[in-house]
Specification:
Chain B: This is Transcriptional regulator. The complex is a heterodimer of chains A (507) and B (180). Chain A is α+β, with helices and mostly antiparallel strands and 507 residues long. Helices cover 34% and strands 20% of the residues of chain A. Chain B is mostly helical. Chain B has 10 helices and 2 strands; from the N terminus they run αααββααααααα. Chain B has a two-stranded antiparallel ribbon. The chains are: A alpha+beta (507), B mainly alpha (180).
Chain lengths: 507, 180
């Protein structure tokens, strides 16, 4: 299956010597072979455009964090769709006088792609606050205008207000050849973490959707498969992805995650982000990275803030026992999710089934561990004897009495900013939202949920507090060694003392 | 329009004092209404909490549909709901940012954002006379928060978020839109 357009690979079209691409005025000068402009015009719009290229040296203030990450990927020789960046200065100008840079459509035409993606990417991370326009065919000017205008949506303004980000900063925009996760049967999209973001377990973790575009993964509108399903469905893509994650970790000396699409069995990376870990996972990763020699112990101690340590001290579920009740083997959750994603009979193994005791996983929305019997309605939660976990498609105010009666809540829909999540946090009750595979849960079945990691397990499971967590214990022992004080004190004080010492005498 | 019936529809199971406070009516009056509703099979009481029966839910759906038809407000409420759907993710973001705050979040800024949002939700409340009651309740929650009771933003049963959540349910119930 060949695509009708030719997307140049990494190390081909865009790996021209840097000097030729970056004239002193910083104006657009795309590589000449694959992206040849019709008339040899290289300089457009007074330095507003920059080709995505390993040699691109503009700082994050100019090209934004997302483009900066893509350049890092290109420097590592990793596959990124060809494209260019419209600098944040163009956005600032647009916000001032409503004028867009000249030559946008000409520049997009040079990419030679049948369609492009247009994404925001500010210098300061504002996740999910601005617009992305995918699959633009023809003129891109309206899409760039839409992304620029999304700088001032109320949500984005609120986010900046709360985080003290200046309102006149503006966003860079990345225009790239569109890669199609819905191209054919050997295409798909996903998000991949180098380590499990819920637990810190040192194995790739994430979500994948076969035959779908990346926006379907991020929106949560489709139920995804565990990333490991890719290993059996497209082994070469899986291998390339795992190798890329390893390379990125070695380079950054930290856990990371990427958005990816593969088109006709060819892998492309669309975004690189550091971290994304729960506090408990962040502690484990810092300790593991020190053990692996990627960072030293001082750096591990430096990386965990006292507030993160406090959050990491929330009790966590440890799935140690076999399930008290067997799942219905004829109807595993993964098959249901695959069918709803429009993929017929996937040759995949449910990675959850490989983890003893786990029934489903969503996003941890309110921390803590709770064990109870499943109640499928709020009325049942009130009526049933003993501790119950309320399991709902989503929650409404009509479920409030059930939430009040339950020890924890699980929803199939909704994200970390949903009514259910806000209410659960207000009641200090563990909550998991956006969990798929819940059809396997019959009313009355005993489960345990972990509102930090998002894990849902069969039966009653043990939980451990911070004092018993070996990774927190080791990190604090390292902190004591740095501060030279091993007297009994609260954990945050032990960490703060070490960090004060490191600040006073870095290195 | 039976206000007690509709209040129960929007807040779910609740005790007498919470129903009366939400409806803004004297408890004695509300209790009398609730007993009438129970006699008609529209409400039940168990373990101290009143709730609607399926028949009560259907009766409320009919009275809100009739209300829209006789007042001619259906178009205005539909438009108000569309406005609400734009503001709702913003409110939920704001609530979550506040609940998950770290040391970099300034409470005064958070209050400012709630106040700004409260200003922008006013046109939604103007779509139907009885929705203005939410305005008073939302204002009061903000006032309590500004006086230092910051749990009145997201973390109490009378919080700004709880009232907003009820407004959301009210709009859905009034327009007969099922939660999908």
């Amino acid at each position: 299956m060949t695509s009708p357009h030719s997307v140049p690979g990494p190390g081909h079209a865009l790996s021209q010597p840097g000097g030729a691409l970056s004239p002193p005025d910083g104006a657009l000068s795309l590589p000449s072979d694959a992206l040849s402009p019709p008339s040899g015009a290289h300089s457009l719009s007074g330095g507003a455009f920059f080709p995505l290229d390993p040699a691109l040296g503009e700082p994050v203030e100019v090209i934004g964090g997302k483009a900066h990450g893509l350049v890092r990927l290109l420097r590592l020789g990793l596959p990124v769709p060809p494209g260019f960046v419209i600098g944040a200065s163009a956005c600032r100008r647009f916000l001032r006088d409503g004028r867009l840079p000249h030559g946008l459509d000409v520049a997009a035409g040079w990419l030679g792609a049948e369609s492009v993606s247009v994404r925001s990417g500010a210098a300061v991370s504002m996740p999910g606050m601005m617009n992305t326009v995918l699959d633009v065919r023809g003129p891109i000017t309206p899409a760039v205008r839409e992304v620029f205008e999304s700088w001032n949506t109320p949500r984005a303004v609120t986010y900046r207000e709360l985080h003290g980000i200046p309102h006149d900063l503006g966003t860079a925009v990345i225009v790239q050849a569109m890669v199609h996760g819905d191209r054919d049967e050997q295409s798909g999209s996903g998000v991949a973490f180098s380590r499990d973001p819920g637990t810190g377990d040192p194995h790739p973790y994430g979500d994948v959707l076969f035959g779908r575009r990346g926006d379907a993964v991020v929106s949560g509108e489709c139920n995804t498969l565990p990333l490991a399903a890719l290993a059996e469905r497209e082994p070469p893509v899986w291998s390339a992805l795992v190798a890329a994650l390893n390379l990125i970790e070695q380079h950054y000396r930290d856990a990371c995650h990427v958005e990816f699409t593969y088109e006709s069995a060819r892998l492309w990376l669309l975004q690189l982000r550091p971290g994304g870990l729960t506090p408990r996972a962040a502690v484990r990763v810092a300790v593991d990275l020190a053990d692996e020699g990627l960072i030293d112990r001082r750096e591990a101690v430096r990386r965990i803030s006292p507030s993160r340590l406090r959050a990491a001290a929330t009790p966590r579920m440890v799935v140690t026992s076999p399930p008290l009740r067997k799942r219905h083997a004829a109807n595993p959750p993964t098959r249901e999710r695959a069918a709803s994603a429009g993929v017929a009979d996937p040759p995949v193994r449910n990675t959850l089934a490989d983890t003893a005791g786990l029934v489903a996983r969503g996003r941890g929305a309110s921390p803590g561990v709770a064990t109870g019997r499943v109640a499928l309605t709020a009325d049942a939660a009130v009526r049933m004897q003993g501790p119950v976990v309320l399991v709902r498609p989503e929650t409404s105010p009509l479920d409030m009495h059930g939430l009040a009666a339950a020890v924890g809540v699980v929803t199939a829909r909704g994200g970390l900013a949903s009514h259910a999540a806000v209410v659960a946090r207000s009641l200090r009750k563990p909550a998991v939202v956006g969990a798929s595979g819940l059809d396997a849960l019959a009313e009355g079945t005993e489960i345990t949920i972990d509102g930090s990691s998002g894990e849902i397990a069969w039966g009653a499971q043990a939980s451990i507090a911070a004092g018993d967590d070996p990774h927190i214990g080791r990190l604090l022992a390292w902190a004591d060694a740095i501060s030279g004080d091993d007297s009994p004190r609260p954990a945050e004080e032990r960490l703060s003392a070490a960090q004060d010492r490191l600040l006073a005498a870095p290195g | 329009m039976n206000v007690v019936l509709h209040t129960l529809r929007c807040i779910g199971h609740a005790d007498l004092s919470r129903i009366a406070a939400t409806a803004g009516l004297p408890e004695a009056h509300v209790e009398s209404e609730l007993i009438d509703l129970a006699v008609d099979g529209l409400a039940t009481r168990s373990m101290g909490a009143w709730g609607l029966t399926a028949a009560g839910k259907a009766a409320d759906a009919k009275q809100t549909a009739d209300e829209l038809d006789t007042s001619g407000a259906r178009a205005a409420v539909t438009s108000a709901y569309e406005t609400f759907l734009v503001l709702n993710p913003e409110l939920l973001d704001l609530c979550s940012l506040w609940q998950l705050r770290d040391d970099t979040i300034d409470p005064a800024r958070v209050l400012d954002r709630f106040t700004d949002l409260n200003r922008r939700v006013q046109p939604v409340l103007a779509a139907l006379p009885r929705l203005t009651r939410y305005g008073g309740r939302l204002d009061a929650a903000l006032h309590r928060a500004r006086a230092g009771a910051m749990e009145e933003l997201t973390d109490s049963m009378t919080s700004y978020h709880v009232i907003w959540f009820q407004l959301h349910e009210d709009l859905l119930a009034t327009l007969g839109i099922p939660r999908t």
